[in-house]
Amino acid sequence: MLEVNDLSAGYGNTQVLHHVSLHVAPGQSVCLIGANGAGKTTLMRCIAGLLRPSAGRIAISDSDMTAAASARLGFGVALVPEGRRVFAPMSVRENLEMGAFRRLWPRRDRTVAGDMAMVFDLFPRLWERQKQPAGLLSGGEQQMLAIGRALMSRPRLLLLDEPSMGLAPRVVQEIFVTIRRLNAEGMSILLAEQNANMALRSAARGYVLAEGEIVRVAESSVLVSDPSVRAAYLGL
Amino acid sequence: MVEADESVRRGTVLVARRPSDHVWLILIWLALLTIPFIAPNAYVVSLANMALINLILIASLNLLMGFGGQISLGHAGFFGLGAYASGILNVKLGLSAWLGLPAAALIAGAAALVIGLPALRLRGHYLSMATLGWNAILVVLFNQLVDLTGGPNGLLGVQPFSLFGIRLDTEPRTFPLVWLASLLIMLAILNLLRSRLGRALRAVATNELGADAIGVDSFCTKLLFFVLSAGMAGIAGSLYVHVNQYASPETFGISGSILLIVMVALGGSGTYWGPLLGALIYTAVPQLLLDYEDAELMLFGLGMLVVLIVFPGGLANVPGAFMRRFGLKGRS
Fold this sequence. Notes:
The structure holds two protein chains of two kinds. Chain A is α/β, with parallel strands linked by helices. Chain A is built from ten helices and ten strands. The longest helix of chain A has 16 residues, at 169-184. The two termini of chain A are 33 Å apart. Chain B is mainly alpha-helical. Chain B has a two-stranded antiparallel ribbon with strand order 1-2. In chain B, β1 (162-163) and β2 (166-167) form a beta hairpin. Chain B is globular, with a radius of gyration of 20 Å. In chain B, 47% of the residues are buried. Mean pLDDT of chain B is 87; it is low at 1-17. The A-B interface holds A 48, 50, 70, 73-75, 79-81, 83-91, 93-94, 97-99, 101-102, 104-106, 108, 110, 112-113, 116, 149-150, 153 and B 1, 3-5, 7-9, 12, 195-196, 199-200, 202-203, 206-207, 209-210, 212-217.
């Protein structure tokens, strides 16, 4: 599904990522764990096509997409950005419509209704609050909305950047239940998380990112029981 | 299915919620057409001309600022660039005003492209700073390039528009031209706001990182609307210079740019009809305050403060605010 090879990237003269390689198989759920500033968001932005890497290549569904940055988001890849970034003054419904932006306009595609029903089925809370401005939702509801908005573009690969950020533990549980459900239904998922415990419990495989380099790759079950990972990221 | 399709058609853009905006626009402009017939003298018609040119300026700034969230402190500069470009092409090269008009739009738009390319790449206040500098530079150039611009004395000898050999050099004759230009600009803005691009603009204005995440190119969207807005200001400039057959530097200073921003806010920033009210006030109030001489600007400023404190959403939101106040359901 996703194949990242020898990727380096940064901002200006500051290099953040050094020779990162990772892959996500179709239907697989993979997590990326690491501390603040390890480069998780930078890597997600590169994969989404929002940041141009300085070296390396990115392939999606076996075709090289390194140069085609703008042909990723909305065309099979969707990003749930760090900090949710919902459109606060727009209603929940309008936010969801915006998720289908690349596909929806100028053709007024009728399939949007079906997709919206699917999102409301996944998050009944959004259905109840569909006419309210997104800015009035709680943090957890905004995260649901950000995920729903991403799903409206019908992705095959969903990139989730720090979905647990700033949420109460109970709400985090709820969000992760949904992520697992999406994966069970066949969605390929790449999840960047500081909350390594939650991430490793819902992903099959995990990459440990430290100072812009992949320092460990293993099955989640292996990482969970690894003493160094436990000490550094699980607080055990 | 039908319900969802309907919600798509209604769209999220504020103005798109009222399907009759097009109808209102035509009706209002048809009513405006009576001005030359009912106006007691040519002076009133000249005020109407100025109000419609100001409307183009304020509406184009509102498109960028009110709907796009990008603050330009150089809108009067683009207005001036359009005026001088069209005027100089006419005076020095004998180019007809009809060619000067599109030339002014293109030159102002191209200038915006050059400024926007670096300034809009970054999030934050860089556009404001860049446009502030831009306007300051322009005023110096208008004053100093005496051979070209006539310097502080102004650009003299600009020829009016002419149609089938008739020179549009009196107020009633220029009115239809300004009327038509302002109608076309207002129509263009309405259609733009309802288009896919208008959607993208609102997403960018609301949350730039969110817009990026759904695949909207924020940079290109901001740049496009900045260029369009400057191009419209250029058109206003060309109309101004050929209607008045004169231009002088002080019209296009930074204080003019700031006043335009205030008019956008006063009319109702991010509302489609706000600029109409803003243009009306911008044109009429200084005339009404002429008797107060030195106190004019002070009274003007005081009035603006009062309106913005009592109605922070601008005058276009006053009816809605009243409706809500009395428990009625407002249209917004």
